[in-house]
Amino acid sequence: MFTGIVEHLGEVIDVKEEGTNKHFTIKSGITHELQIDQSVSHNGVCLTVVSIKDENYVVTAIDETLQKTNLGSLKIGDKVNLERSLTLDKRIDGHMVQGHVDTTANCIKMEAQDGSWLYRFSLDEQFSELMVEKGSICVSGTSLTIFDVNKGEFSVAIIPYTYEHTIFHQLKEGSVVNIEFDMMGKYILKYLKKMNISG
Predict the structure, then answer these.
(1) pLDDT digit string, tens, across residues 104-146
(2) Does residue 147 share a domain with residue 67?
(3) Distances from the Cα of 174 to the Cα of 110, 121, 131, 158, 163, angstroms
(4) What does the pLDDT average to over 81-104?
(5) Are residues 78 and 134 located together in one domain of the fold?
(6) Lower CB density within 10 Å: C or N end of the chain?
(7) Residue 94 in 3-state DSSP?
């Protein structure tokens, strides 16, 4: 379980393929605090640390993960948003995030504003019912509030700190991001559909 508050930017320094899997070697300033078998969010995807050496550690993404997220397109030199799993004594500054990506979205607009940045994303319209105006969403591991929700599109506003300390400064029109919708919203929607009262 995570909060969507990015702790650190890691760097992909090696990518190895093994069958349909990919092993990513990540260089990170928090590597010395990690342990083998620990869960770490990478661009919003929960992956398990399988080995550690000096400042680097390795995680493995299976084919299912590579097909449903943007991890399959990661290459050497790319930055990734990192967050370690939530501890019981930690403040939840974002929202509850599982690290289970629901889909990907495309950046269709990036606009620098007076002291902030506006990004607009599009995704399959089937997910529109999971997006609520002023609700929470996790974009590549970053907990954000969405607005201007309309027919498979939504916008987020990024403050300077978030812009500089996450992968948002690398995003441009055409970039693909990982999306995890609010966990409570997903369960409520499923319950309503089961009860045939979704409207």
Answers:
(1) 999 999 999 988 999 999 999 999 999 999 999 999 999 999 9
(2) no
(3) 10, 9, 21, 18, 18
(4) 88
(5) no
(6) C
(7) coil
| Structure confidence by residue, pLDDT tens digits, 147-168 | 999 989 999 999 999 999 999 9
- Whole-angstrom Cα distance, residue 35 to residue 163? 28
| 8-state DSSP, 188 | H
Distances (CA, A) of 112 to 89, 116, 157, 159, 198: 37, 6, 10, 11, 38
| Any domain includes 154 | yes
- Structurally, the chain folds into a number of domains equal to 2
For residue 107, what is the enclosing H or E element? Answer: strand 103-112
Cα 113 from chain centroid? 23
CATH number, residue 147 = 2.40.30.20
Q: Out of 19-23, 83-87, 123-127, 168-172, which region has the weakest mean confidence (pLDDT)?
A: 83-87
Q: Do 30 and 77 sit in the same domain of this protein?
A: yes
Q: Give domain status of residue 3, yes or no.
A: no
Q: Which sign, positive or negative, has the C-alpha torsion 118, 119, 124, 130?
A: negative
